[in-house]
Request: fold
Amino acid sequence: MRVSNRLLWVGEAVYPLHNVVRVHTFVLSPDRKKAVATFLPWILLLVVLFVAFSRAGNPPGMLAAAVPVAFLVSALVRRLNKPDLYVMSVETSGAPSAVVTLGDRAELRRLVARIVDAIEHPEREFSLYVAQPTVNIGHYVHVGDTANINGSGNIGVVKK
Reply:
């Protein structure tokens, strides 16, 4: 990530600093409830099958049920142990935005301050290496509104 010649570079993307309308940080937490709700029914079904096979004296059936249970439990534990992500979002006056994650929230806030300083002082430039981990955003709780509007004659979004 760097700022030079009034441009903000985030990886391969470039944003003119005069188009940046908001820079903020937030915490993106894994959706642990969804993970449990997704995995638990399958685990319970396989445990019931395991018990049924064990009562019938069917060792191959027990193994066939036990292996997927072990796999699902390990996948659930991995999902539940995913850390919270500290995220900086850079939003522009148009649709584009950039998201950067760091392990240290204080460092992320210092990065926001440096970007704001570069916006306020056009002569300021900086360069900083930011490692972006690969993140499956579907495993995290989405923060914010989502609107899907189709057709014509729409008057807005009604929030309940």
